[in-house]
Every structure is written in structure tokens, then in C-alpha cells.
Amino acid sequence: MALERDRHAAERALVTLGETELIELYRRMVLIRRFEEKVAEMYSRGKITGFCHLYAGEEAVAVGAIYSLSSKDYVVSTYREHGHCLTKGASPRAVMAELFGKATGISHGRGGSMHLFDPNLRFMGGYAIVGGGLPLATGLGLSIAYKEEPEVVCCFFGDGALPQGAFHESLNMASLWSLPVIFVCENNFYGMGTMVQNAICQEELYRFAEPYKMPGVRVDGMDVLEVYTAVTEAVARAREGDGPSLIEAVTYRFRGHSMSDPAEYRSKREERIWQERDPIKRFRSKIITEHRVNETRLEEIEQEIGAVIDDAVKFADESPEPALDTLMKDVYVDE
Amino acid sequence: MPQIQYREALNQALREELERDPRVFIMGEEVGYFGGAFKVTDGLLAVYGEKRVRDTPISELTITGAGVGAAMGGLKPIVELMTINFGLLAMDQIVNHASKIHYMFGGQAKVPIVIRAPQGGGHQLGAQHSQSLEAYFLHSPGLRVVIPATPADAKGLLKTAIRQEDPVIFLEHESLYGVKGEVPEGEHLVPFGVANVIREGKDVTIVSYSKCVYDALDAATALENEEIDAEVIDLRTLNPLDLKTVVESVKKTGRAIVVYEGWRTGGAGAEIAAQLYEAAFDHLDAPVVRIATRDVPMPYNKHLEKAALPSVAEIVKAAEQLA
Fold first, then answer.
1. What residues of B are annotated to the active site?
2. What is the CATH number of the domain that holds A294?
3. Is residue A153 part of a domain?
4. For residue B280, with 0-12 CB atoms within 10 Å meaning exposed, 13-18 middle and 19 or more buried, which class applies?
5. Is B166 in Cβ contact with A332 (below 8 Å)?
6. What is the pLDDT of residues A174-188, one digit of tens each?
7. How far apart are CA B124 and CA B307, in angstroms?
């Protein structure tokens, strides 16, 4: 059942989405990029510490996938989740404040960059154990099926999660029970510095769908419309009760694995090739030339986002630290 | 009051909670058509159907993780791990996920899951099927650790576990399933963190839990002949731990023996002894004695296995030396 890559998906999406929606996709991608650029700056200034994994370069995956969800659908993510969380609707203030470790942060300063969470947005968390989110997503899918609700779960993970047992157990269980889960693999070619071909016997990751009897598709993860189309189809299938799908979005992170990684295992030439495929630049010129979106409008959006990010930093910087007497709070619900 | 087996008491608790709350469901290996590897879930599938008594593939990590996810999605899952030995495959979801989700997301998420698992040795099942691993869970903040000895507590603690909002590790010694005792019918809830002084005495305090409570009681009976009056405390839950009851007892007896089936080194008894020293050093007339399983993978041979496990004779001997 594994499908070949659908080369016309993006063209179809361009037809179905109107100008407002295309501009919204652009806005969301730019928000992530500017946010991550600012995070890098704040990290180098010592305002953000700990592990910090940036999403720059992969924006089309989060935006394309999450744009196809409703607000009540769940998202489960990884430690590289700033983009998913912002796209699901989190305020840049709350996310930035979390990275600053402040009480006003989205996880109240307890989580940091890798553990963002907002139950009202149904953003069900960033998890920092590779593959750890897949069983949770399967369980959320089970809760939806149990309650006979119409929602779906969109679960993001990297290529590094595929050799984990959790991946195989979760795909088997989700398929066995026809659970409404969309497994979105962000294949950025490296698990830290290990190339995917040195980690997985089957480099065409979407083909793992076939043994688990679900549709599998590989999309260009640098093309927001292609991601959007594939996930929209998977969501429709899941809502109909027809079970899970696996989507492999081929993408590239523009920075190292984390802030401390200069990515010396990659060639400059390789990085240049991928930067030429920048999902934001490509989409910008595409909607201007093919959809006659007004460039001035896009420039306004870019300026608006600049102000939003500056405001988020100001908010985070001025927010209070968590009180020390809250240290032992919330270890248990029933104290 | 009717006398029923420990396994029947658990079955009764499950049945009553399935009946009471539609969010409650059971999942695990062989819980449905097989009736549970130890027959704890026997008969439940026929009444509640596959949706609420769900057989799973052999995937402990994802059975547990899916339980955690389902709990976050508003359900009240009861996950049965066929034995705690297999539960080691689920440690990532238990320790890295279930125990931390409430805290690390700022108190915004709850994981009301009960993870039940048989454990313990004494049946010649060899090194991979005879472990008592409560200390692993006791070590992780965020988990409740419940370990009943009697049929009545098995029922009352399981019902409490299902109704509260934190992840609970619920450990059942395999030797106890056939033990009979009086169990209240219908609503019977035993609170967490309240130890049971199961036998009163004035000379020595024997602190225990799970199957070793019976060994402690047998030792206390044997000690009567020597006019040593032992007090036996069944902790019932290790987290929360009712240290107060233990300290009160030691204030009276001045001597304490901790009996447990986990390995001696780093076992729950080591923690109990340490806390006793901190809280009641001035009341102790002698060092706290630990009686536990020898630090060895469990051998198959009957005599070797017996030698590895804590025994009534050891408890008696320790009490004699203390008295």
C-alpha cells in the first residue's frame, strides 16, 4: 500500500487554497524562522541555556502538517518542537519565556526547550527520549477511538526514531486497532551526526508503512503545500476511522543538531544545496509569481513578526523566575 | 465477611471499578480471552467486552506508553504487565514519561494510570522470572508504589489506585494469589500511606510488606515460645511511606527488623532503615537489621533458591539476637 511520491500534490493544494490561506502558511513559517534566529541569538547571549535544538530549515513540515489539523486535534512532538508548538497556536511570549526558564513559560519554567506543553492547544508535549512520543500518540489515538470522538493525533519524530522499538511497536498497535494517528517522520538525514544510511537498513523510510499495513508516502519536506496535501489526506482517512498513516517528510536542518553542534560531519556544499531549497524563500517566490500574492503584504507580515518576536523576548526577559518554594510542587497530583 | 482469594479480591475491585466508571479500562497481554496469566482478569471480557478488556501484542513499552497516552487523553487505564520482569522493557515509559509528565509540564498534565504487575520468587522460575523490583520504582519521584499483602488490602488499595490521579505501580507477589482472607463486599477503599500494625508487640518491630508480611507473622508466632513479643507492621504502600507508624512502634520496642524480598543492596528496606535512623536514632537500642534476598540472580535449583530468599528462620534468629 506504500504510495509513490505524489508529484502533483503541491499543484493541487495551490488550487484549493486561497490567497488568505497561502499568506497564512507563509506567516507561520516566517514566525518559526524569526523565532529560531532570535533563540540562537539569546542562547549565545546566555539568556537561554541547556540543550536547545533549532527547527530552522524544517518549517514547511510543521506548518504544512499542522495547518491540516483542527484546533481540537492533538500534536505530540520531540525535543525539536518550538516550530510545532508555535504552529499549534502557542504564543511566542509563552514559548520564549519557557526557554528563558521563567514562571510565565508555557511549562512554567519546569520544562525548557525540550518540554513545551499546552493542554488547551492540545499540544501534548515535547519529549526528549528518541521515539518516546510514539507510544503516547498511540495511546491518545486509543482514547479518541474509545470515546468515539472525531479528533486525530499528529505525531512528529525524526529519522533517528525509526530504529527504536517504540516506532515499530506503535505502528503495529495503531494499525492493529485502526487508531487515528498520523505519524510524521521528519527525515533530516542525520540522527545527531550519524547519517541515516548508517543507522537504518531501509533508507526509504516511508516504506516501513507497508509491513504495518498503512499508507506510506514520501513528500518534499521543503514544500509546505506538498506536506499539507499529504497530511490532509491522512487526516481525512484517520477521521473516517480508516486508521493511521506514515508520512516521511524529507527535510534539512540548517543548523547543527543542537546549539553546541557545529555540524562538521556535513559538507559546506551539501548545506549550500539545501539552503538553495529554503522552504520559505521558495514558497515566497512561488506565491508571488504563481498566485500573484502582493509582495508588499508579505513584507508587512515580516515586519509584524519581527515586532512579535521582539515583544516575546522583552516579555521573557522581564518575567519572574519561578519561586524557589515551588520546587516540590506538582510532583504528585494528590499530595 | 466472605473469605476469598487475593486474586478474587483483585478481580472484584476491577469489576466494581469497571462498573462504576466508564473511563476505566484494562489492557495487557492475555488479559482478555486467556483471563490473565494469573487469572486476575478472569471473566471480565465476557461482561465488559473487548473495548474495556483489551488484549495487546507483546509490546510492553508501547502497552505502557499507550496507557500513559490514554490517561493523558482523559481515560483511566489499568495496564497489566504479565510480570514485573517484562516491565523492565517499559521502564522508559514509566520512568522517563509517566513519572515526570505532571511535573515537567508545570502541573498541566495528569497521568492517572495504574500499572499492575505480579512479581517475586519462590517458584523455581529462574533468574528472569523471580525478581522483586519495587525499589526501582520507589527510587523515582512521581510514582506511587503500592504493594498489598492481604486480600482485603489488595481490593481496597486497587480501588483507591484506580480513583486517584497519579501513576501507580501496583505490585502483587505471585505467591499471594491463592491466599484467602476476609474481604468486605462492595465499596472498600484503603487509603495510601497508612501502614497496618498487623500484630501488636512490645519487644521488637518487624517492618515488612507483600509476601514477607506472612513470614514476619510466622516468625512472631515462633518467637512467642521464647517470650519475645514482636510487633509486625505491614507498610501496604511504599510511596507514600507511613514512617510515622514505624517510628511510633520503634519508640515502644527500641528494635527494628526490616524484611523484604528485593535484593538487599539498594532495596526498599535499605531506604526504610535509613529513614528510621534519621527519625528515631535516639529510640533505637540496636542497629536496624535488614533481611532480604541475597545479591544474586535467582538460581533455578530449589535449595539454592530457598537459600537466596529471606526466611522465617532468619527473622527469628535476628529477633533473638536483638532481644
1. 60, 129
2. 3.40.50.970
3. yes
4. buried
5. yes
6. 999 999 999 999 999
7. 12
